[in-house]
Design brief:
Number of helices: 4
Radius of gyration: 18 Å
Helix content: over 70%
Protein name: YgjV family protein
Shape: elongated
Strand content: under 5%
Number of strands: 0
Transmembrane segments: 6-22, 29-49, 55-75
Structural class: mainly alpha
Keywords: Membrane, Transmembrane, Transmembrane helix
Distance between the termini: 50 Å
Largest sheet: none
């Protein structure tokens, strides 16, 4: 398990984790979950073709979890509406938080 497929999956996994950890908003997090789905499929293929069944099984479960993340962050109609409403007030809230932090600091 040290071929190009595994390197693509490993780099994709790190990029997806970075997207989610960066906390750049719901859309970026949703795209992080999409990338996690793609690399989960890559890990499943790698595991199945190299006889690494634990890797394949783990990523099959992770694929389901990541698909749920895609639904929650990008596809759910309710969550999309909440996101749209939050975007409208986000600049004002961020300014208020910055003022509060300046007073505290």
């Amino acid at each position: 398990m040290n071929g190009p497929l595994e390197w693509i999956a490993a780099i994709g996994t790190m990029l997806a984790a970075g997207l989610i950890a960066a906390d750049r908003g719901r859309r970026a997090t949703g795209w992080g979950f999409i990338l996690f789905c793609a690399v989960s499929v890559t890990w499943i293929v790698s595991g199945l073709t190299s006889g690494a069944m634990p890797i394949a099984a783990m990523n099959a479960v992770l694929l389901c979890i990541n698909l749920w993340g895609v639904w929650q962050y990008l596809l759910s109609p309710k969550n999309r509406r909440v996101m749209e409403m939050m975007e409208a007030v986000q600049p004002r809230i961020e300014a208020e938080v910055e003022k509060e932090m300046a007073r505290e600091g």
